[in-house]
Amino acid sequence: KGVSVGPGVVIDDGVEIGLNSIIASGCKMGENSTLGKNCRLDSNVVIYHNCRLGNNVVIQANSTIGSTGFGYSFIDGAHKLIPHNGGVVIEDFVEIGANCCVDRAKFGNTIIGAGTKIDNLVQIAHNVVIGKCCLIVGQAGIAGSCKLGDGVMLAGQVGVADSVKIGDNTVVGAQAGVVNNIGAGERVVGSPAIGGKEALQIIVLTKRLPKLAEKLRQLSARIEKLETAKDDKE
């Protein structure tokens, strides 16, 4: 009831669509997937099988939900794809930008918590769990099995290594590389990501390096003169 379906949309068997949802042209919903009430799928969005989207979800054009994750085992001299038989759960009031990918889980579900907002060009790998009301800015990439708490903010081009845990309300600065777990409420920057206070100290010291190098050159010259004078006396 009240559902709007654009031209060229493919809806497979067992799909459920809630009231007042809009599915724009060229979208596809795979078998046994569900779309809640008041949702909007822009053109060419693909929802794979067994994915569950809550109410008031917005997914912008050309994004893909539930594609097979990037998981391989090296067997007999070749990379063999590991089966990904899980699904994706996107909770209420989530918004996902254009050209994003959310991979299905190997088992269980990849989960995006209620109220989370995701910018364009973001990659979310298999079995990732993202908490409620997170903000993930463009070109960020989250590797498999990571867990983000509630209210986490990832700035542009942040990379998170596999299986990392990030605590509630943590902010990760632009282009940071997160390779270790981060506690709640922290502010980190850099690659590898470190605390903001330590990073500021490093920046200050880095700016002083040219002057320190000049002082070191002068000291080396003085020491060389003293050693030369000592040798002459001997």
From TrEMBL:
InterPro entries: Hexapep, Hexapep_transf_CS, LpxD, Trimer_LpxA-like_sf
GO terms of biological process kind: lipid A biosynthetic process
MF annotations from Gene Ontology: N-acyltransferase activity
Assigned keywords, A-Z: Acyltransferase, Lipid A biosynthesis, Lipid biosynthesis, Lipid metabolism, Transferase
SUPFAM superfamilies per UniProt: Trimeric LpxA-like enzymes (SSF51161)
UniProt GO cellular component terms: membrane
PANTHER family with a match to the protein in the record: UDP-3-O-ACYLGLUCOSAMINE N-ACYLTRANSFERASE (PTHR43378), UDP-3-O-ACYLGLUCOSAMINE N-ACYLTRANSFERASE 1, MITOCHONDRIAL-RELATED (PTHR43378:SF2)
Protein name: UDP-3-O-[3-hydroxymyristoyl] glucosamine N-acyltransferase non-repeat region domain-containing protein
Originating organism: marine sediment metagenome
